[in-house]
Amino acid sequence: MKPITSADNPQFKALLKLVQSSRERRLAGLSLLDGVHLLQAYHARHGAPEQLIVSDNGMASTEIQALLRACESAKTLQLSDGLFKHLSSVATPTGIIAAIKTPRREAMPAKLETCVMLEDLQDPGNLGSILRSCAAAGVKQIFLSKQTVNAWSPRVLRAAMGAHFSVEIYERIDLIALARRFPGRVLATRMNATQSVFNADLTGSVALIFGNEGAGVSAELAACSQEAIAIPMTAETESLNVAAAAAVCLFERVRQHQQLQQQQRQ
Predict the structure, then answer these.
(1) Phi, psi at residue 34, to the nearest 5°?
(2) Distance in angstroms (rounded) separating the CA atoms of residues 219 and 166
């Protein structure tokens, strides 16, 4: 494999466009996984990616060499370290980037289960953190409103740390229509709610709604819920970051399920 060392190389130019433009990634139907951990998470569930890009230094890594052997069916390019830095979105590149077909879900799931609905989230870090919490808490279905940040952007992928490949992500969803036909209970998180999340029943089939970082859940979507819940806080604190709030609610649900299972065993 001959390394690419010139910035005028057509293959490098095409890759740089993918890195720099969400429009190019959307047109190509590709997402970029930057780093060993993301590629390992993808490979464990989906096999080899479309393409691998490796730096000169990366070629010397035993971990990356193992990934190259495991993904031998993928097209592989080797770049000089200088060119690779232009493609990597992390401060200290690990030496490998994978291009994958973006796994968009065009159809809604046949069966709606316990899920999270996210309305108009704008911060990629928040979305990535929530996806990671959902994966850790065993919630598979995540529905994003039309105005929520792209779930497959590089920043969301980094923040989620591989959670994308453990959950089902549905984008550009009409959450109001979805909430109205959800077969279980719909709970909206709202700052002015009088019901504490710690007193709400989160067992069974539930949909948890979290809103925009500044505006919260819209009144129209909240009206589709059966309950409004809040996280109790001291008077000195106005609100929690939405990713932190989602983690609290998701793991309160985990705690309640564990408590219920213990009671059933007794």
Answers:
(1) -100, 105
(2) 31
Query: How many CA atoms lie within 13 Å of 151's alpha carbon, on the beta-carbon side?
Result: 25
**Residue 136 in contact with residue 80, Cβ under 8 Å?**
no
- Numbers of helices and strands, H then E, in the chain: 11, 11
**217, 191 Cβ separation under 8 angstroms:** no
CA atoms within 13 A on the CB side of 190: 18
Angle (nearest 5°) at CA 190 between 259 and 251: 25
Instruction: Return the C-alpha torsion angle 216, 222, 228, 229, nearest 10.
Output: -30
- Give tens-digit pLDDT for 142-172: 999 999 999 999 999 999 999 999 999 999 9
Strand 96-101 and strand 51-55: the pairing is: antiparallel
Any bridge partners for residue 163, and if so which?
none
C-alpha angle 136/130/201, rounded to 5°?
A: 70
Alpha-carbon distances of 179 from 8, 120, 218, rounded to whole Å: 51, 15, 13
CA distance 131 to 142: 8
Please list the residues that pair with 233 across neighbouring strands. none
What is the distance between the alpha carbons of residues 178 and 109, in angstroms, rounded to a whole number? 11
pLDDT in tens, 57-107: 999 999 999 999 999 999 999 999 999 999 998 888 899 999 999 988 878
DSSP 78: E
3-state secondary structure of 206: strand
